[in-house]
Amino acid sequence: MTFLPSCCGTPVDQWPWAQQPPGLTMVSLSFEPDGLRPNDFRRCNITPPISITGAVEKRQAEYLAGRLCARQCLLATTGNTATPARGDDGAPIWPGGCVGSITHTQGWAAAVAGPKRYFAGLGLDAETLLSDRRAIALARKILTPAEQKRFQVELEEHAGWLVTLVFSMKESLFKALYPLTGQRFYFQDAELVSQTEDGTGRLRLLTELSPQWPAGRELDAQFVFGNDRAISLVAVPADQQR
């Protein structure tokens, strides 16, 4: 990276989860929206869409930080300093032969990328830890009735932790599957079947997205908590899309 804007910290190439599938790279950095300068996009050789140039400073900084992370991931994956564009639906457009995902939350951004020959889709999401009070208010929107029953103890004792986890993992699932199916789905259309202390989980679709992705289809996920945020990842192996 030849130029790093003053609003962004140094990119960190560090895998936060217990298991690292071969070929995947994650890069993260911290950022301060107040430090964004008018020519930062030009100096970074990143052309933002009109929806971003007309957005508030915070949104511009999020976009720039996320794209800088994605560029570093693609450099590690392909050797080229490509930057994902933004599609009409808001999703990143990754270069041919690669898949990836971008996330950001409250001054922190990250991206993950890998080769398409190994992965059909990737979903990365970070969420700031909810307070217990806020989590209880959101629980019925984010958790299905089955999840509320399945994780009743966690919901009663650690509501902020549980609801943040489920929120993040379902967001990662959406980011992984939307590019494969073209179908949007929502919190009540998937459920967390199980989660373990070592940071793994199992997600199940509750609605059909395509013939390859029917209701009942399950996928593994990983998660980690740190610095008052949850970070989750869903990686779809290439052979699961065939």
Biggest sheet descriptor? 5 strands, antiparallel
Share of residues in helices: 25-40%
Number of helices: 7
Query: How much of the polypeptide forms β-strand, as a percent range?
Result: 25-35%
Query: Could you name the CATH class of the largest domain?
Result: Alpha Beta
Structural domain count: 2
Query: How would you describe the oligomerization state of the chains in this entry?
Result: single chain
SS content category: alpha+beta
Distance between the termini: 36 Å
Instruction: Provide mean pLDDT, rounded.
Output: 95
CATH superfamily of the largest domain: 4'-phosphopantetheinyl transferase domain
CATH topology of the largest domain: Ribosomal Protein L22, Chain A
Instruction: Examine the secondary-structure arrangement and name the CATH architecture of the largest domain.
Output: Alpha-Beta Complex
What string, H for helix and E for strand, traces the elements in order?
EEHHHEEEEEHHHHEEEE
Strand order within the widest sheet?
Answer: 7-11-10-9-8
Poorly predicted runs are none
Rg, nearest Å? 18 Å
Shape: globular
Number of strands: 11
Summarize the structure.
By secondary structure, the protein is of the alpha+beta class. The chain has helices spanning about 40-45, 50-55, 55-80, 130-140, 145-150, 150-155, 160-180; strands at about 10-15, 25-30, 85, 90-95, 100-105, 110-115, 120-130, 190-195, 200-205, 220-225, 230-235. The strands form three sheets. The chain has a five-stranded antiparallel sheet.
